[in-house]
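Researcher: Batch entry, complex prediction.
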Amino acid sequence: MTNVAQIRARLLAWYDRNARALPWRARPGERADPYRVWLSEIMLQQTTVPHATPYFLEFTRRWPAVSDLARAEDGEVMAAWAGLGYYARARNLLACARVVSERHGGAFPRSEEGLRALPGVGAYTAAAVAAIAFARQANVVDGNVERVMARLFAVETPLPQAKDELKRLAATLAPPARAARPGDWAQALMDLGATICRPSSPACDRCPLSADCRGLALGQPAAYPRCTAKADRPHRHGVAYRLLHDGQVALVRRPPKGLLGGMLGLPTTDWRARPWTAAEALAGAPTPGAWRAAGSVEHVFTHFSLSLDIYEARAARPDASLIWLPTARAAADTPSVFRKALKSLLS
Ligand code: ADE
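Model: Structure tokens for the complex:
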């Protein structure tokens, strides 16, 4: 029989000694800034802490308060987000900042329900912000927490079917009262999942919950969570065009909806199952010209992988229907797939 009180005490004591110093976290005795907590939670969805941290620092340097972000130009925010992926999040981020600034007087709602009504704020984010920024009791369950629960309770149901069960198990451990530090509890579980109860080779010898862990007692903690075999990702092919003029490259703004929506990118063909022949690639070019093949790049998106052939040409003059940026700036302001396609131009 698992001792819930003991697990809570052990994990919080571990957190007091081992909490990661992260720029959105309050220092002991300080209150967390809801804007920073919300921003970090949006950035950290499907992104690791080391990858998201420089973006967080740059955003808070340029837009120190939610009202600053609300007033920012859409294109500037999309460019600053480039490389973080899941670009619908950036569009929702701006929409949310504007709602908070214009309809809530710049103050985030404090309840999960109020937070949940904001653009781009789902059940997880609402729970995380309520717990971390407002010390509300909430069951904050991300992928890290699911893994910790699956091991601690040796859950045999595979993911994704196990999600509800793992959430219920997490709720049995979540501290009951405000005095029990809901924000610290949530972040302690996240830190345990990220640093000790890692996806592979968990450091059970340093884990404060090793005595409570059924997965470890069964001798195979890393075998949890059980997973159903994933269907293979489909593969697609596309062509991207690098049209160059005087150190600049031509970009287009992608349509607001859909993959990489609203972001700047190289002009491309459709991305389809069948490879593109050279003749098709030339026929699809954004302008006539002396196009030559200039290699290819591979990129993996969530739902498919992509081989992108690159064609390059020099423009006699910059066509005004395209957006021209210096190549280094273009690489910085576009999603990773285009950054890869521009890389060989950067010295
Ligand atoms: N992942 C998502 N939110 C986090 C947080 N507040 N601290 C650490 N990792 C996280």
